[in-house]
Each structure stands twice: as C-alpha cells, then as structure tokens.
Amino acid sequence: MPRRVAEPEPGRPADPVPDAAPDPAPDPGAERPEPGPVSVTATAVIETPAVWRDPSPLDPAWASPRRRRRRRWLVLLPVALALVLLLAVTIALGGFTERESVYQPVAPGAVIRTGPYEMSFDKVTVERELSFGEVGWTATAIGHGRLLDGVTEPMAPYLSTAMAVQDGPSGLTVEGFVQEVGPVSDSGATPRLFTPGLESQEYRVEFELPAEYRPSGYLRLAIADLSYDDHSFLQVGTKYWAPSGRGGAYYYLPVTVIATAD
Fold first, then answer.
1. H or E element: which one contains 83?
2. Biased composition, Basic and acidic residues: where in the chain (predicted)?
3. What single DSSP character describes residue 212?
4. Fewer CB atoms inside 10 Å of the end CB: C or N, the chain?
C-alpha cells in the first residue's frame, strides 16, 4: 500500500517528504560499473508571434502580389529627350552647318601671314613643258617668304592643301606641286624648307597645268589660312599646321608667258 502523508494542520508547515532510500552498498568484490557519459540538452524557447487570420473568404479575383517591373520606355524616354535637346542646341549654334570659308583679295606684292609663315607674291610665269610624255604647262608663282619669329624648326607649307591657282576664263584649278626657297641653284639642290631666323627670301611655288590650259592675263593664287590644331577626322590628339577652314587670301597675279623652242 502507498504510504499516506498526513496533511498539515492549519498554521503548521508541512513535514518534508523523506528522500528516497539510498542505493544499497555493493557487495564486497563486486565489479563497479563505469560511469556513463553525461549528456546535456539545451532547450531553446522560441516565442511565436501571434498571427491574425482574416476570417472572411478569399476573393477569387484577387491575384498574388508581384514585383512591378519598370517599363523600358520609361527608362529610355529621359535619354531620348536629352539627345533631342543636345541636337537642338547643336543646330542652334550652327554645329551642322558648313563653316563659312572666306578668302579675301589682296594686291600683288602684299604681305600676308598664314600659320607660322609670312609671304608675298607679285607675279606668275607659265611655260610649256613635256612631262611624262605629255605636253603641259608649268605655272610658277614668284614672291618672298620667311618663318615668323619664335619658330625653331625648318618647315614649309604642305602645298596640296595650302595653295592652289585658278584660271579665270576656264575655271581650271590645280594645287601646288613643288616649292623652292632661296636663289635658284644651277645644281638643282635648292632648299625646299624655310630656315628659322632668316630674313625674307625668294620663294617660288610651281603648279602643273594640263595641255588644254590657254594663258590669259592673270592667274588667281589662293593661300589658305593655317592653324595648329588636331585636324584629324577622329581627333586623335596630334596637332599640325593645316587649313583652318576659315578661308585665307588670294592674289590676282599677272601672267608672263615664257617662250619655249618647239
């Protein structure tokens, strides 16, 4: 039968419950058991927040929420507007209009400056010559020229872009071909570059005219305004002397025909 424990009287503390009887002592000579491992179990207490559930039935037309994606045209529209604005400003400032090129007439012998050069021309001679098996004409514009102060390297204009002559009656136009600086040398070793620091020297520029050319009273010699800039199409950063695109000057030079033996 289970042992009854008397209830305490009012105002008297309850008697303590006797501890369990201790394990009996092992018999002498008995094998003592090895103590087993002690395990410790940690119990985590997780508090679950209260969840409120809507008791009303689910609307069948309700769709689950999705992340709204920005429409592509909303992203591209500001870029397109910026490009249109840039284009309008460029057109307003004349960015796509052809730069006006103005050549001013000067009298024969007048001194002009273009890039690092100072030069003048007062006459032109034409002579029939045989070149590469064909008879043509050589026009030679004669004048003077020098390098401006401060230039330290020998140089000369790039004729194919810097100078040209035009026949008034026919409209025939050719670019410069050969240039010589200084007195004519019998050996043919006349310098073709200006030397820094020298005074103005004789300067001759030759132009090759076709056989159909017929000498008239004058030839117009055009000299482009030169600037030291990056004139390359891709703007690679290399600067050199070339026509600025702003025009330049031109002479109406009287023509002297040099007779040649047929």
1. helix 72-92
2. 1-12
3. T
4. N
- What is the per-residue DSSP string for 131-181? ETTEEEEEEEEEEEEEEPTT--S-B---HHHHEEEEETTT--EEE--EEEE
| Residue that has been written with the tokens 């000057």 in this structure | 249
Domains and CATH numbers, the chain: 103-258 (2.60.40)
**Largest alpha-carbon pair distance within the chain?**
163
Residues 6+ positions from 32 with CB-CB distance below 8 Å = 26
Per-residue pLDDT tens listing for the chain (262 residues): 455 545 555 555 555 555 555 555 555 555 555 555 545 454 555 565 666 676 777 666 666 656 555 566 566 667 777 777 766 656 655 555 555 679 999 999 999 999 999 999 999 999 998 766 678 999 999 999 999 999 999 999 999 999 999 999 999 999 999 999 998 877 767 899 999 999 999 999 999 999 999 998 999 999 999 999 998 888 888 899 999 999 999 999 999 999 876 5
In order of 116, 142, 157, 206, 243, the CA distances from 194 in angstroms are 10, 15, 9, 16, 19
φ and ψ at residue 85, rounded to 5 degrees? -65, -45
**How does strand 117-131 pair with strand 240-258?**
parallel
